[in-house]
Amino acid sequence: MSAEAGQWWSTDLTRIVPGEIDLGGYPVEQLIEHASFVDAVWLLLRGDLPDRRRSKLLEAALTASVDHGPQAPSIAAARMAATCGVGLNSAVATGTNLLGDVHGGAGQQCMQLLDELVQRVRDGAGVQDAAADAVSRHRYVPGFGHRFHPRDPRRDPLLGLVEDAVAEGVVDGEHLRAALAVEAALADGRTRPVPMNIDGATAVVYAELGFAPELGRGLFVLARSVGILAHAWEERGSGTRIKGPIPRTLLAGYTGPATREVPRGR
Amino acid sequence: MSAEAGQWWSTDLTRIVPGEIDLGGYPVEQLIEHASFVDAVWLLLRGDLPDRRRSKLLEAALTASVDHGPQAPSIAAARMAATCGVGLNSAVATGTNLLGDVHGGAGQQCMQLLDELVQRVRDGAGVQDAAADAVSRHRYVPGFGHRFHPRDPRRDPLLGLVEDAVAEGVVDGEHLRAALAVEAALADGRTRPVPMNIDGATAVVYAELGFAPELGRGLFVLARSVGILAHAWEERGSGTRIKGPIPRTLLAGYTGPATREVPRGR
Amino acid sequence: MSAEAGQWWSTDLTRIVPGEIDLGGYPVEQLIEHASFVDAVWLLLRGDLPDRRRSKLLEAALTASVDHGPQAPSIAAARMAATCGVGLNSAVATGTNLLGDVHGGAGQQCMQLLDELVQRVRDGAGVQDAAADAVSRHRYVPGFGHRFHPRDPRRDPLLGLVEDAVAEGVVDGEHLRAALAVEAALADGRTRPVPMNIDGATAVVYAELGFAPELGRGLFVLARSVGILAHAWEERGSGTRIKGPIPRTLLAGYTGPATREVPRGR
Amino acid sequence: MSAEAGQWWSTDLTRIVPGEIDLGGYPVEQLIEHASFVDAVWLLLRGDLPDRRRSKLLEAALTASVDHGPQAPSIAAARMAATCGVGLNSAVATGTNLLGDVHGGAGQQCMQLLDELVQRVRDGAGVQDAAADAVSRHRYVPGFGHRFHPRDPRRDPLLGLVEDAVAEGVVDGEHLRAALAVEAALADGRTRPVPMNIDGATAVVYAELGFAPELGRGLFVLARSVGILAHAWEERGSGTRIKGPIPRTLLAGYTGPATREVPRGR
Q1: Average model confidence (pLDDT) for chain A?
Q2: What residue ranges define each of the domains in chain C, with the CATH number in brackets?
Q3: A100: nearest CB among C70, C86, C93
Q4: Which candidate from A14, A153, A222 shows the least CB-CB separation from D20?
Q5: Interchain pair C10, D252: CB under 8 A
Q6: Quick count: other Cβ atoms within 10 Å of Cβ B258?
Q7: Which of C112, C147, D104, D217 has an alpha carbon 20 to 30 Å from B242's alpha carbon atom?
Q8: What is the pLDDT of residue C1?
């Protein structure tokens, strides 16, 4: 019966016995000496260590994603949390909790789209036709276009690294080609292009590296946790207590009913 | 420009000026004297106060939903949180955060189904045909059947109150009839019935009272927050520190790779 | 051994067997018919049902606390969450998670102070001396004064209800007298008074009703969850996606270092 | 006035203008090419890039902290969350939210203790006297001893790296010496030693690198987020829905009052 409860919590990830900790089978003391932090991310998510080239590619995508300023609700909420008397852990949780389908899900959605396109190409479709078809079916294609940047400055360096990795045979380039075909289809006939954004460029990296789409979200959460923590910490340093979204001198507007009496004897 | 930021945070719900607070237009001091807590729930969600009969019906559904024991992950997670050195607010947040589509969404999904059926009946379909059709399309009908209770003890008293309200003309009974037709269709030809559970019975109440399906989830969150808080508080009283899911003597099983060397020079 | 894991999750609150649910020993179907929602709150937190007078007093304090507008970070964060593609449950969790020691803890801290004063009075001190001493030791006395309201409109009706309850012998008034003595001590020699705010007035109610200070926070979390839910729902209705703290047209300022080159070969 | 709201959200961390993103003043495209992920963590938390030796030391501490198995409540809660129909971001938030003062705060507390000892040594005290005095004042010294490991396998490799860094003049070793003195004081006169655990060893690393104690918690949150994500993902792969803390066959025990009638006419 003890087995039943123990089995209910069994895991492939980590083995713990008194004095020993293995992650994915590797003794933790060897990992401390010979693995990078990004290697450890890969190990726990994929079950084994990556080679150096794949690890560096993952690292570039994570580094690219750490922050995009306090205007993002995930960051703003974490900064507000930091002023409310909760631990930094709760401030970080507040931020990551907001990285849902709309605010943090575009990368995952882009990976799903790229997977579909790659499958269609493997089934014999031309990549340009498949991309044009996909574009025609979406009003908004996740991973492309940015409400603020005409061209996201993180696109080119990330795609450049993927192109290098394809040239060296590290990854096969199927998802990169699908993404570029979508970008071309989106530019076709428009006055201004809709280039890949950070969600699209990291989706290409993660998909080329074989991560499942849902882990695209997971990896973004890990990366953006860095910015969330840093902003929470910066706000802590400000000494503000109970920070609202706008300064107290700018009162929130009221648009509801005028003052009225509570009816008695309802 | 000040207006721009103030407008960004405008609301219909609450008016605050120095010395005055109105909720939905009613002075808070009048609400304190003449409104119940459930009235205040209705007021903020619907924009005006309910009559006494509707308020009591809502109250019964909320009361029915406060707890279902520590086996629920929302409750267990809150109890664990309470032992980790976070405030009760964070323990409660931990629990409510788990009331997602799978653990807390059946009521909302049932309300959506009932809305569809009611619409089909309004469009001329027979309620039994519409229900039989819906049942045939779902392997699992949200709001019906319980993995633990052969007949959920909360079903009968809640539906009894709805039937009374229909008899008195307080609500019109369309959603109740749709739900009963689904229950009948689910029983048809089966050796054992699949009666409405708490999610189904509260869905009938909330839908009859005119709440949107998504608020079905919201109301469940409010009600279950009571049990989450109470369990967190009970755990706090135990003095346990860092409560794991099973006692330390029942070690979680390890099912991953055997111990191996970290390859060097990757 | 099965007993070990079952016992690890044992509880006094709720008994579940197939077809039966008891809360605090009371069958849930009887509670649905004969108990209010506030009764159920009391039952789960205290182990038995309250009498009608105590239930009404608790209800008034909860009703008074449901909302104070979108300027509060707990509310603003929940509204932002609602625009990020997470469920209403996660939006509510986001808000309650911010009700920490600073933003949501004043009631608990006030209850602790009142408990100390009541103890000193029971030990023979005069209530005015004890209060004056407490005031002289705190720069900021939790539960007194409001950054926005010169006099919090929720103070008078709540204290009025407590006074009635004292007159009727429902509660003994020790904590009320201590709080009034603090208020008098704070007014002494100042040009403007520092009257009890919502945290202080509800602290008096909860303390008179015998709740532990930490549950003062818990009850505030339950009550404010109503406002958090209502604001999240109002924001959902707005259709805004990824709501930042200020409109996009008002860019957050940057105060860091000027653009510089990443040093190579570090 | 626009300035007022923009200033309210100003930051030193990230500069965003259309087409440009700088982190700490460095163009993001240069960071993608020339900085590691750990460099980016340092940059956002400290305001500038670290040298390679310091970056590697931080990396080792982060790598050492990624996971300690599903018995930890932070991990168990995240695994349960993953079965409840919430996004991976919310599952991760659930886990990090539990890393409070008790479950995740020992490193921060250890850093505070080490800072005190270092200050006393700088003020002229002998490190052994200061350590013995600190040990005598604490029943439980944060960062020392482990309820499961007689000797934490992460201690030696981490302290070895710090010793190397001291030998090379990368860090000054004050906090290392203080921690070793505490360890010696704890061993003094006991039948079994109480060696540094992961919290203590990483506290030494972070303190030697100049991080504030509260960021010790922050860095632990970042590192452990990797394990939290990986466990949530593993659980997702299991297909379990609504995972409770123990299998359904092991019912939680009930220890409350026997079934009783709700009194009427209260």
Answers
A1: 96
A2: 13-50 (no CATH), 66-244 (1.10.230.10)
A3: C86
A4: A153
A5: yes
A6: 8
A7: C112
A8: 41
* Facing A229 at nearest CB: one of D28, D218, D230: D218
Confidence check: pLDDT of A39 > 80: yes
| Contact yes or no for A83/A242 (Cβ under 8 A) | yes
Which three-class secondary structure state does DSSP give residue A44? helix
At which residue do the structure tokens 């290409």 appear?
A: A204
- Pick from A226, C91, D218, D109: nearest CA to B222: C91
B14-17/B20-23 β-pairing? antiparallel
Residue A253 in contact with residue B7, Cβ under 8 Å? Answer: yes
Q: How far is CA B33 from CA C63, C150, C157, D54, in A?
A: 9, 22, 7, 63
Token look-up 């807590």 returns B37
Cα separation, C91 vs C134, in Å, equals 39
Residue that has been written with the tokens 């259709």 in this structure: C239
pLDDT per residue of chain D (266 residues) written in tens, 0 to 9: 457 888 999 999 999 999 999 999 999 999 999 999 999 999 999 999 999 999 999 999 999 999 999 999 999 999 999 999 999 999 999 999 999 999 999 999 999 999 999 999 999 999 999 999 999 998 889 999 998 999 999 999 999 999 999 999 999 999 999 999 999 999 987 878 899 999 999 999 999 999 999 999 999 999 999 999 999 999 999 999 999 999 988 888 999 999 999 998 77
Take residue D202 and report the two structure tokens written for it: 């990483």
CB contact under 8 Å between A257 and B8, yes or no, is: no
CB neighbours of residue D44 within 10 Å: 23
Contact assignment for D16 to C52 by CB distance below 8 Å: no
Provide the whole-model pTM: 0.97
Q: How far apart are CA D131 and CA D140, in angstroms?
A: 13
How many B×C Cβ pairs under 8 Å?
284
